[in-house]
Structures are given as structure tokens and as C-alpha cells.
Automatic annotation (TrEMBL):
This is AAA+ ATPase domain-containing protein. Residues 164-299 form the AAA+ ATPase domain. It comes from Cylindrodendrum hubeiense. GO terms for molecular function: ATP binding; ATP hydrolysis activity. Its main location: membrane. It holds the Pfam family AAA.
Length: 434
């Protein structure tokens, strides 16, 4: 409940700050009022004492700004977006909202633009992926719970030298569930989740990329506890060398400083990275990730569970033993490969309907329905799907044979050379397997 109110409050605050920056003070005041009402509810429902204290501190700052806007409006102040020469209401830091040097929140205009550019990286909607929705990967799930869930729920456990993990790297072949684990973290963790790709941090303007990195970590610190998920982190943090551009070097340097630099408080922030090619990471970046978890291909039990999860509540004729059969026949398949096999199998009845030249009448729940049949069926009627009404169509059952045929038409996407390379890197640098 608290997460929902807090996210809604943050969304309203973002609107209020944008109105404030545009000198639309009446709209800013209205948005601040809505945000504060939601913020009060979020504090009421928040159970974590540390989080509640942090939220109260932030509320004082925004209430101060709201009060200044109210006083300005009560004294007859007008929106200053019409080219007038009047100054806006004084901001919390003593500057004016209408001044060029500082924006309403005490930030300069350029910094405000950078933060706006990164605002889309904050996940507003939870992906709705639970831990139980992920087959296998128990080691990875336990590590992520240690790093994200427990420090928020039981902050008293992490005192003195016992501190939560600050950086976790998920690596392994494509399609094994690294990004899916990140979705589970976003769903399960009571924290602000930033989902970042290289395009969010790379700019064509000189010096702006590293400022984006700095702004990202500043926003994460302001909204602690936070998780910064960087997908395909190798695209940003490749090895430094002679052929490297100056811009790329500066981005990596800023990430290194923000993750573990002198004077930067990283408590309450987890950097979660994912990559298919961990050997392409810079050595210093690799060191910043205290836990390096190998997300390998699923074992037989994991594959059977993946088939069940991928099928979900779709009607099939499969029984428990059939999942073991499919698991044995799919050795070397990744989770993504299995999802594609299931999708192909579930589409086979659709293809039968499209290709059918004959249908027959069957009874389903006391109602007459039409289903495709062979030309030799004694009850056949020559027709195509064009002649069948939507409420009369009964699709064929999805059977084990459909899955076996889909498997026969599919091949693993992860090569043996790639698997061997991942294992070698794990033996040299990995923390644990999953």
C-alpha cells in the first residue's frame, strides 16, 4: 500500500516541480497539495521506520515550498510565464523560482534537464513478476533477497561491519532469466527502481554523459532505498585501452566514482548489472560488483517447471509425466528457448483451423460446436473457418505431440563454446552459480 501511495506522490511531485520551473505557480501549488496528501498516506502505511523517517524529512522540504507558493499567491502573485519582470516566490534555498541560476527545487536549469531525461527510467508500474514465477535460480534469488528485501524489512540486521551488498552482477548466456530476475526485484522490493540502458546515459554533447551518471546516482540517493538496474552493462563498461574514446572513458570513470568513490554515500543503493559477456567488463567495474552470480542453463527440474510456467492456465491435455518427457527432450535449451517452444506448440491448433477443409459438430457443455477434422471423418462437413461463427468454434486440444513437434523444429540458441566460456569466467571471477 505504501509503495503505491509513494509512487503516486512522486509522480505528482514531478508535475509540481515542472510547473514550478515553468513559473506556472498556481498549477504547481495545486500539484504540491495533491502530492502532500498522498505523501501523508504513504507515511501512514509505511512500516519501515528508516524509510518513514526519510519520507518525513522530504515532506518538510516540499511543505516549505508549498507554503512559500501559498503566501505568494495570497499576496496577489501571478504566474511569471508571460514575460513579466516580477520575481517568483523564494525557493527553499533562498533563490527565486524565476531566477536563471536556480530552479524551484534548488537545482540549476541544466541539472533539471538531466533529471527530467532520467525520470522515465524510474519504474512507475511494477512488472508483477514474483519470486515463485521464476523456475530454479535459487542461488540468485537468495542473493537478491539478501541485498534488497532483508535490508529494507529488517534494517537492524545490518549494523556495524555487516552491510548489505552494494553491487550484484548477473551474467550468463542469453535467455537464461537475468532481466526476468530484475523484474522480480522491481516487483518484490519496497524501493525505488531505476531501469537503465546505455541510451539513457550516452549523450552526443561533450561532458553530458558523465553528468547524467552523476544525476542518476543523486536521484537514487534522494529516493533511498533504491535499485539501479543496468541491462547489458558491457555496452557502457568495456575494458579501458588505447582504442577507447575519451567520452567512453569518462562515463566509466564516473560510474566507478559513484559506485565506490571517496565521499559518496552508497548505503541504501544497490547497483544491479546484467550481461551476456562478462569478460568484456573493465576490471575495475568488475571489482565494484561484490557478488557475481552465474545464471546458467536450467537443469531438468528447472526446465520442467519452465514448461509449466510458460503454459500457465492455457488448456492442454498434458499430465505430470509429460513435463518430465519435455524436460528430457529439451536439454541445452534456455528459458527463452523453452518459452518459444511453448508458444509454437500453442499455435499449432490455430494452424489446424487455418488449414482445415472439413469440420465436424461436437457437443461442449451442452452446446453444439464446430472443430476441425480430417477429410476421412464420418461426421465431416466440407467447409473452411470463414464459414464458422466465432462462438461456434472449438479449437483442437493442445497435446504432447504438439510440443514434441515444436521441439523437433527448434534448436538451442546457446552454443557449447559460449557455455564453456561462461564456465571458465565463473571459475576465475564468479562468486557463485545459480
Amino acid at each position: 500500500m505504501s509503495i503505491n501511495f509513494r509512487e503516486r506522490a512522486l509522480a505528482e511531485l514531478q508535475k509540481a516541480i515542472e510547473f514550478d520551473h515553468k513559473k506556472e505557480y498556481k498549477s504547481a501549488f495545486d500539484a504540491y497539495i495533491i502530492a502532500m496528501e498522498l505523501w501523508v498516506k504513504a507515511i501512514k502505511w509505511e512500516k519501515n521506520k528508516v524509510m518513514k523517517d526519510t519520507m518525513r524529512e522530504k515532506m518538510v522540504i516540499y511543505l516549505d515550498r508549498t507554503e512559500k507558493l501559498k503566501k505568494w499567491l495570497d499576496e496577489g502573485g501571478q504566474d511569471d510565464n508571460g514575460g513579466g519582470g516580477g520575481k517568483g516566490p523564494v525557493a527553499a534555498n533562498g533563490a527565486t523560482s524565476g531566477g536563471k541560476a536556480k530552479a524551484a527545487g534548488g537545482e540549476d536549469d541544466d541539472n533539471k534537464k538531466l533529471r527530467n531525461a532520467l525520470s522515465g527510467a524510474i519504474l512507475q508500474e511494477r512488472p508483477n513478476v514474483r519470486w515463485e514465477d521464476i523456475a530454479g535460480l535459487e542461488g540468485a534469488k537468495e542473493t537478491l533477497k539478501e541485498a534488497v528485501v532483508l535490508p529494507i524489512k529488517f534494517p537492524n540486521l545490518f549494523q556495524g561491519k555487516r552491510q548489505a551488498w552494494k553491487g550484484i552482477l548477473l551474467y550468463g548466456p542469453p535467455g537464461t532469466g537475468k532481466s526476468y530476475l530484475a523484474k522480480a526485484v522491481a516487483t518484490e522490493a519496497n524501493s525505488t527502481f531505476f531501469s537503465i540502458s546505455s541510451s539513457d546515459l550516452v549523450s552526443k554533447w561533450m561532458g553530458e554523459s558523465e553528468r547524467l551518471v552523476k544525476a542518476l546516482f543523486s536521484m537514487a540517493r534522494e529516493n533511498k532505498p533504491s535499485v539501479i538496474f543496468i541491462d547489458e552493462i558491457d555496452a557502457l563498461c568495456g575494458p579501458r585501452g588505447e582504442g577507447e574514446s575519451e567520452a567512453s572513458r569518462r562515463i566509466k570513470t564516473e560510474i566507478l566514482v559513484q559506485m565506490d568513490g571517496v565521499g559518496n554515500d552508497s548505503k541504501g543503493i544497490l547497483v544491479l548489472g546484467a550481461t551476456n559477456i562478462p569478460w568484456q567488463l573493465d576490471a575495475a567495474i568488475r571489482r565494484r560488483f561484490q557478488r557475481r552470480v552465474h545464471i546458467g542453463l536450467p537443469d531438468p527440474n528447472g526446465r520442467a517447471r519452465m514448461f509449466k510456467l510458460a503454459i500457465g492456465d492455457t488448456d492442454t491435455t498434458l499430465v505430470a509425466a509429460d513435463y518430465n518427457t519435455l524436460s528430457k527432450d529439451s536439454d541445452g535449451f534456455s528459458g527463452s528457448d523453452i518459452a518459444n517452444v511453448v508458444q509454437s506448440a500453442l499455435m499449432r491448433p490455430i494452424r489446424k483451423i487455418l488449414q482445415a477443409t472439413h469440420f465436424k459438430t461436437v457437443m461442449k457443455d451442452g452446446k453444439k460446436m464446430l472443430t476441425p477434422c480430417s477429410p476421412g471423418d464420418p461426421e465431416r462437413v466440407e467447409m473452411t473457418y470463414d464459414s464458422v461463427e466465432s462462438d461456434e468454434l472449438l479449437p483442437p486440444d493442445v497435446a504432447l505431440k504438439d510440443f514434441e513437434m515444436a521441439l523437433a523444429d527448434s534448436h538451442p540458441t546457446v552454443s557449447k563454446d559460449d557455455i564453456a566460456k561462461q564456465i571458465d569466467w565463473t571459475n576465475e571471477f564468479g562468486s557463485e552459480g545459480a
